[in-house]
């Protein structure tokens, strides 16, 4: 099918921002929706399957409205992801956009108080994840890399601190590569554990700013530490995040979950397809997912490659590895 669309009256600045340098954005859109896009001045020709062509034209119209300023590659990828997620939700509802919207219950206010005023769930699973974190004391986020598990959890923690819902934020990860025996590494404690905790720092810097993060550390309202240092503590009135939880042992996971005190909230994130534990060792995340499945007050959100908000190749890589794992499992049977 061939669809034609023209932006009248034409705005050359918006058209340039929409198309990107040397029509790079148009090529990205064409690849994402599996269509061909040709542009001549303010007129666009989109060729492909009817549904895909209509979605591409719809997104072109939406992006043109934003194109008063340049559109970055990340903004474009997120817009494509949102369009695909919206289409998938309508398809599952089995009706038109109006039918799906009417059937969907009203969502609570999920705006988070961080430096990023536009921060929100980009996919249905991300929205469900935010709802689970806000509505449960312990939440598990399980899925592949790039789905926003850690970033959204840190955003919720920052929001809770801003609203005075908690008194401090504690972020932790298992230092599996060094066996959690960090003494042989050079430097002081912060320098020893820094490589393992760097992704958490990056999220904090983006959501709070470097200066505020430094002040929060000084006031002890923010703590980043390896999981081994959690033993023996009781964490009251804190927002606690355990990242890379697939690399915990069952004993470590139980230890962490039993640290949670009054007025606290915990989020556990991990990717069970990337377990770095020694061969033969059980993952604490896998065991906790099985044991705690029906425990009241605990919620689990499962992410898929459709929730990846990084470069589009990441989603394809995740899917390819998933197919390879399935084929390997079938061969073993």
Question: Can you lay out the helices and strands and say which pair or pack?
Answer:
Elements: E1 2-6, H1 12-19, H2 24-33, E2 36-40, E3 43-47, H3 50-66, H4 73-93, H5 97-103, H6 124-135, E4 138-142, H7 149-162, E5 168-173, H8 189-208, H9 210-218, E6 222-226, E7 238-242, H10 250-257, E8 265-270, H11 284-291, E9 298-302, H12 312-332
Parallel strand pairs: 4-8, 4-9, 5-6, 5-7, 7-8
Antiparallel strand pairs: 1-3, 2-3
Helix pairs in contact: 1-3, 2-4, 6-7, 7-8, 8-9, 10-11
Would you mind describing this structure in some detail?
With 333 residues, this protein is of the alpha/beta class. The protein contains twelve helices and nine strands. It has helices spanning 12-19, 24-33, 50-66, 73-93, 97-103, 124-135, 149-162, 189-208, 210-218, 250-257, 284-291, 312-332; strands at residues 2-6, 36-40, 43-47, 138-142, 168-173, 222-226, 238-242, 265-270, 298-302. It starts with a strand and ends with a helix. The strands form two sheets. A six-stranded parallel sheet has the order 6-5-7-8-4-9. A three-stranded antiparallel sheet has the order 1-3-2.
Q: What value does the average pLDDT take?
A: 83
**Rg (CA only):** 23 Å
Strand content: 5-15%
Number-wise, the strands total: 9
If helices are DSSP runs of H or I spanning 4 or more residues, what is the number of helices? 12
Distance between the termini: 44 Å
Provide the structure class. Answer: alpha/beta
Strand order in the largest sheet:
6-5-7-8-4-9
- What is the H/E order? EHHEEHHHHEHEHHEEHEHEH
Largest sheet: 6 strands, parallel
Which residue ranges are poorly predicted, with pLDDT under 50 across at least 5 consecutive positions?
A: 95-108, 178-183
Quaternary structure annotation: single chain
Indicate the percent of residues in helices. 40-55%
- Inertia-based shape: globular
């Amino acid at each position: 099918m061939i669809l034609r669309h023209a932006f009248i009256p034409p705005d050359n600045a918006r058209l340039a921002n929409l198309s990107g340098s040397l029509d790079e954005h148009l090529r990205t859109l064409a690849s994402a929706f599996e269509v061909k896009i040709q542009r001549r001045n303010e007129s666009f020709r989109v060729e492909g399957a009817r549904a895909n062509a209509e979605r591409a034209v719809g997104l072109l119209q939406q992006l043109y409205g934003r194109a008063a300023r340049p559109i970055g590659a990340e903004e474009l990828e997120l817009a494509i992801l949102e369009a695909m997620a919206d289409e998938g939700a309508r398809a599952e509802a089995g009706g038109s956009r109006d039918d799906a919207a009417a059937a969907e219950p009203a969502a609570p206010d999920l705006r988070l108080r961080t430096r990023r005023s536009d921060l929100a769930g980009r996919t249905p699973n991300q929205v469900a994840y935010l709802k689970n974190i806000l509505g449960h004391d312990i939440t598990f986020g399980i899925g592949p890399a790039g789905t926003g598990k850690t970033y959204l959890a840190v955003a919720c923690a920052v929001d809770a601190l801003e609203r005075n819902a908690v008194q401090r934020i504690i972020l932790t990860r298992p230092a599996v590569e060094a066996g959690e025996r960090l003494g042989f590494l050079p430097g002081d404690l912060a320098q020893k554990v820094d490589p393992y905790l760097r992704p958490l720092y990056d999220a904090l810097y983006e959501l709070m700013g470097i200066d505020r993060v430094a002040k929060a550390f000084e006031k002890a309202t923010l703590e980043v530490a390896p999981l081994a240092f959690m033993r023996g503590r009781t964490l009251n009135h804190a927002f606690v995040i355990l990242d890379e939880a697939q690399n915990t042992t069952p004993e470590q996971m139980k230890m962490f979950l039993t640290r949670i005190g009054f007025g606290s909230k915990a989020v556990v994130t991990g990717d069970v397809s990337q377990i770095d534990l020694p061969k033969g060792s059980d993952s604490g995340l896998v065991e906790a997912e099985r044991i705690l499945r029906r425990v009241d007050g605990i919620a689990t959100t499962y992410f898929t490659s459709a929730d990846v908000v990084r470069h589009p190749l990441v989603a394809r890589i995740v899917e390819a590895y998933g197919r390879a794992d399935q084929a390997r499992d079938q061969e073993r049977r």
